[in-house]
Each structure stands twice: as structure tokens, then as C-alpha cells.
Amino acid sequence: MKRMIAACMSALLLAGCSMGQAKPQTEQAENSIVYSNLANEASQQEVTKLLKKHGVTDAQTDLLASWVKDVNDRVTAGTLAGDFTPMDEKGADYSGLIVSYKSDADGMPLPEVNCRLNSYLLLKNKIETNGKKFDDDTYLIFDLEAIDTYEPFHLTEAERSNFNSLFSWVPVQGTSTLDEHIAKIQEAWKDREIKVNGKDLSLITVYLHSPFEQVRFVGHTGVLAEDKDGLWFFEKYGPMFPFQVTRFHDRAELKQYILNRPDLYGDDTELEPIILENDTVLS
Predict the structure, then answer these.
(1) DSSP string covering 16-74
(2) Over the stretch 69-118, which tens digit does the pLDDT of each residue have?
(3) What is d(CA 121, CA 75) in angstroms, rounded to the nearest whole number?
(4) Residue 170 in contact with residue 215, Cβ under 8 Å?
(5) What is the Cβ-side half-sphere exposure of residue 114, based on CA atoms within 13 angstroms?
(6) Which residues contact residue 192 at a Cβ distance below 8 angstroms, ignoring those fewer than 6 apart?
(7) I want to staple 27 with a disulfide (CB 3.0 to 4.6 A). Which of 23, 77, 120, 179 is the partner?
(8) pLDDT value at position 222?
């Protein structure tokens, strides 16, 4: 496969570049897409308050805080955003960021949080499936191994079954169009009886195409919360990259942000990414 996609996204374009007279700084700030890596107490408290308002429990936010601290404490080069910071037109630049690896007492590498583990932590109390089991998804091997062997990622048997059903790939044999792939994904959600309960939080999933395996797999995922201040997107940028919370004005900005990541795209044999909000195509 031409790319590694346990990753979780970033890099986004602003809503546009104006010509002529520059806008006042206050107006620029109001119109900006802003993001934070939760690198200070103020941003952590703001995000925790918002998540709890949307039904995420103390236990979930406490675990999230421990994951954030673990990653942020291992940044050895580059700068994280503490306060919510406007993004320039090139997006969040992590090219100079280095997160050191962690290992156990024997020097063996320990698992890292990825986008799927992060999203499931925030939504697990709102997720229902019929627990249908899938053992053939090669993209989930390391996720399930981490859940089974690393205590910070431990799930109950029922939660693990839901995780497996939610994120396992979708076969698309015998299809050749984007519409057919969308139908296959939505059929899979119905077959697995996947439900994201409530209207407070929704799951954003990006299904990528693997022509070799003839499947659609979850290459990225995050959690979306709607608030009076806009749309807040919670994600883990990548296993060796930071957490990121980004505020958008509307779903069009969110979609552009997701599609702007270059490692979503492979060769000409792949159909374009499909983005769902719960079981509905994000438009």
C-alpha cells in the first residue's frame, strides 16, 4: 500500500484569501478557522467543559487528558498550539514536530493513540452495534492488539465488539463507482446495526479505497460537536503526532479541511475518499 493510514488528519485551508485592503485584525480572528493541540491548561479546560456539556463522562475526559499529557510531554522538537490559534492558509504545520517513542521496561515499543482509539473513547457510551465480528481487517490489527495488551486502551468485551463492528472495513467487490461504494458502506452500517445515539456528538469517518483488497477502510476518523461558537472537530492527527481540536464555521469548511490532506490520495486505481457524518455522506 502506498501510504500508511493509521493517521489522523490535519492541514487545512482557510475560508479564502481576500484581495485589496486587509481586514481588521479582530475581523480576521473572527473569520479564522482556529485550532489547539491542548498544550495548556486553559485550552484543556475549555475542551473538557465542552465535551462534558455534550455528554462525555468524567472518566472519559480524565483518560483523554492523560493521553494528551503523555503525547505532549514527549514532544522534543517543534511547537504545539496551546491557546486556540488562527490557522494561516498553509494549515497546521507539523513538519518540524518530533514526538519521541515510548517503550516498556524491556525496551519494546508501546502502542500510540490513533484517530480510531481517540474517537471511540469520546463516543463509546453513545455507540451501539450488533457486535458482528470481523477478523480479516488488516488495518485494525494493531488497534485490536493495543486494546488487548495495553491497559490504557483496555475496553470491555462489549466495547471491543462495538469498536470492531464500527471500524472494520467494507468489502466493495463487483463495484466500480463512487455511488456504489457509498451504498456498500451504508448497507454495512445497516447490517451491523451501527447507531450513534443522541444529537450532541457525531462521528466523522473517512473511508479510503484499497483496490488491492477491494475494500473501503476507515483511514481517518474524528468526533464533531456543534455549539453556539461553531463546529468543533476532535481528532488525533496521527500516531506520532498531537491531538488537535479545530473550530469550523460550517460543514463545508470541515469537508475541505479533510480533503486537503495529501496522504488521502494514492494512484489512479483508487476512487476518491468518502466522508460520512454518522451514516450520512458529508456534503
Answers:
(1) ----SSPPPHHHHHHHS-EEE---SHHHHHHHHHHHHHTT--HHHHHHHHHHHHHHHTT
(2) 999 999 999 999 999 999 877 668 899 999 999 999 999 999 999 999 99
(3) 23
(4) yes
(5) 22
(6) 129, 130, 132, 165, 166
(7) 23
(8) 98
- Report which secondary-structure segment, H or E, holds 257: helix 251-259
Question: Which three cell numbers mark 128?
Answer: 451501539
Return the closest-CA partner of residue 238 out of 18, 23, 37, 32: 37
Confidence grade of residue 13 (pLDDT, cut at 50, 70, 90)? very low
Q: If 0-12 CB within 10 Å is exposed, 13-18 middle and 19+ buried, where does residue 59 land?
A: exposed
* Consecutive H or E run containing 254: helix 251-259
User: What residue ranges in the chain does DSSP mark as E strands?
Assistant: 34-36, 75-77, 85-86, 98-99, 127-128, 170-171, 195-196, 201-210, 215-227, 230-236, 243-248, 274-277, 280-281
Q: Amino acid identity of 12?
A: L
Whole-angstrom distance, CA of residue 56 vs CA of residue 54: 6
pTM of the model: 0.88
Q: Please determine, for residue 196, whether its predicted confidence score (pLDDT) is greater than 50.
A: yes
